[in-house]
Amino acid sequence: MRIQWLRLLLLRCHHTQSQFCISRQSQVNSLRAFTSSFLCSREPQVIPRPFILIHHFSSSSELAEESKSTPDQAVLLTDTFAKTGKSSEEIKIDLDANNVGITHDLVMSVLENSSTDPDVAKRVFHWVLESESEKLSSKSYNLMLGILGCNGFVNEFWDMIGIMKQKGYGVSKGTFNKTGLRDEVDKLKKLYSCGSAGSKSSNAEEEVCRRVCNIVNQEVWGDDVEKQLRELNVEFSSNLVSEVLESFEVEPNKGLIFFRWIEESGLFKHDEQTFNAMARVLAREDYSEKFWRIVNEMRGAEYEMEKAMYIKVLQQFVKSKMIKDAVDLYEFAMIGENKPSVHDCTFLLKKIVVSKELDMNLFSRVVSVFKANGNMLTDANLDAVLKSMTSVGKIGECNKILKAMKEGGYLPSGYLQNKIAFQLSSGGKTEEALEFMDNMEASGTADNYKSWVSSIEGYCVTRDLDKASDRFRKMVEKEGASSALYALDMLVSTYCRKNRAMDAFKLVSEMVNAKGLRPWHSTYKELTSKLLARKRFGEALDIMNLMKNQGYPPYLNPFIEYLSKVGSADDAVAFSKATSVKSLPSTSIFLRLFEAYFKAGRQSEAQDFLSKCPRYIRNHADVLNLFCSIKSGDAAETAAVAA
């Protein structure tokens, strides 16, 4: 459909060609409304003092893991222009808030993306044309022309043709290649060239770039190559030089030779755009030294590193496992005007900690330059770093990380302290966990109670109960008995689930008798049930005595169930005595025991227990009635059987 539409468009233009050529002035006038609002001069930028980065040229292939990209600025840019009705000032505020800096590469990435909405692409292009037109090149115009031509924007298509002719830009054949319009492009070029005879600027920059590259590639650089380049009689612009340099991406040395010669020859003086283009081509491990030389020259010439270039090179360094170079690049960019986003700090810290060998010097450098630029580390930074460390099994080295971040003015919140304590303990890092707790206590910000509990919980999760108990004892010594009840309950529950009720009993007895702990009622009850399930009646009775001494009511049900099934008369007597401290045991307890014995079919044990009960129980009317009813029932059953 697009092909048919453009063919009709070209046919229409063929019929009106002579009018277009003769009445060029009227065409230009019709374009004035399209362009007038977009042709604004850029505000002058503040130039920082020259800066030379002292760089040690070394990198290791083992210093990084393959990583995800930093936040995509192209996405942020298109999102900003997705909504209509925004003023130019509102757009600028939104871009600044998202730390998006307009660069040539960024605009190109939006226009080249086939998923970009055509209307959004138009708004982006027009806004850049109005506010920062120097960021647009011949390639940018050709991409925009292709979008207009392939999406039915007839009037704007021809307006763009006029603007491009005024600027001396040609129509690239690649503009419509994707839509299969190669033949039609030739017709369009014939129409486009009308009235431009004798004009040097009518040659497309792409063609000039191709000719320059052919000359450089055909033979070894020498006087003959330089002579041919001069004879081109071309006025080298920033866009043209940048395109030539980028064409030598696979042969950076040729690009660097051309870069040096073009300025030494007096044909062109390098600017920010061409310095950035050259640096981008050299951003490879085997050209690291040359890259940094160009970057330092750029800063010395008071030019800035473009943000889009910084992002692209940073990603390239990380993918090539050149983490030291990535940190150097971050420091360099942070000193300049186009500072990296706050997310880049976290991005680099994560890459450093997942390296084969943790380089704390690199980590500290990133933290230091981040702080020096007025930023503050947050829990989000540390949390992201911890996740990366955990993913490669390096959580045991978190104390080094925390020390470096503390020097950067950051201390973790209580939530993260607890998380770290848990992770160290659950990961079996006992010494590191103790060191962490000591460091947090020394800092004066530790939420000691919760951190201790989290550490104990970590050991409980891994069922390392001996270490959990040791840590619990240290907690009681440091924090006191009143803070240890939750941790004790957690320990008892874990012991019981692991069928180690006796170890739980010993710990509870030790803490109550020696440290004065008053465990929760629920802790006592759970331990009692588990002890009786393991037929540890004596220990369960001791727990009942501890409960009584601390004012808790006795926990009767598991005892009565145990005694009715396996307990002896002596056990029942001991239990009944333990249920009361000063007064005599309650009659109701005896009655419940007798009923439980009878229900379990253990009349003889009930009779034996009755014989050992106090006189007030043996003569109690309710007790006598219970035994009489049982005997009457037995007699009636015997008579029925005899009959």
From TrEMBL:
It comes from the Eukaryota. Residues 1-18 form the signal peptide. The keyword Repeat applies. InterPro entries: BIR6-like, PPR_rpt, TPR-like_helical_dom_sf. It comes from Forsythia ovata. Pfam families: PPR (PF01535). Keywords: Repeat, Signal. This is Pentatricopeptide repeat-containing protein.
